[in-house]
Amino acid sequence: VQLQASGGGLVQAGGSLRLSCAASGRTFSSYGLGWFRQAPGKERELVAAISTYGSTYYLDSVKGRFTISRDNAKNTLYLQMNSLKPEHTAVYYCAATTKAWSLRLLRSEYDYWGQGTLVTVSS
């Protein structure tokens, strides 16, 4: 599967962005999906994940602010980000895993990656 992330940009603190990840290739609905981010000088970390059944996981620091969702009919993954803060500045990557029977929380468990989209939150 090929993944194409989009929707990043520059936003002021308190603003919102919606990231999208369009997929092509094998049946989209059969993949577990996730959004990771990597800030300058930091490790790439999982922000949110969604299983094939719609179960979700969120990093504690984004709970209540970010919402992950998927539209299998459109082969698209989303990340709605509200009440953004400067510390949310990072390159955001979408990823897909074939190990889709449960939520996958480790970077090593994901098989396919999008190219990343930069989110910059100004104070």
Beta-sheet strand percentage?
over 45%
Largest sheet: 7 strands, mixed
Structural class per helix/strand content?
mainly beta
The run of helices and strands is EEEEEEEEEEE
Low-confidence regions = none
Oligomeric state of the chains? single chain
How many strands appear in the DSSP assignment? 11
SSE topology:
Elements: E1 2-6, E2 9-12, E3 17-24, E4 32-38, E5 45-50, E6 56-58, E7 66-71, E8 76-81, E9 90-97, E10 112-113, E11 117-122
Parallel strand pairs: 2-11
Antiparallel strand pairs: 1-3, 3-8, 4-5, 4-9, 5-6, 7-8, 9-10, 9-11
Give keywords.
single chain, globular, 7-stranded mixed sheet, 4-stranded antiparallel sheet, 123 residues, mainly beta
Short description:
With 123 residues, the protein is mostly beta strands. It contains no helices and eleven strands. The strands form two sheets. Strands 2, 4, 5, 6, 9, 10 and 11 form a seven-stranded mixed beta sheet that branches.
Structural commentary:
The chain is an all-beta fold and 123 residues long. It is built from no helices and eleven strands. The strands form two sheets. Strands 2, 4, 5, 6, 9, 10 and 11 form a seven-stranded mixed sheet that branches. A four-stranded antiparallel sheet has the order 1-3-8-7, with no helix packed on it. A hairpin with a 6-residue loop joins strand 4 (32-38) and strand 5. The termini are far apart. The relative contact order is 0.32.
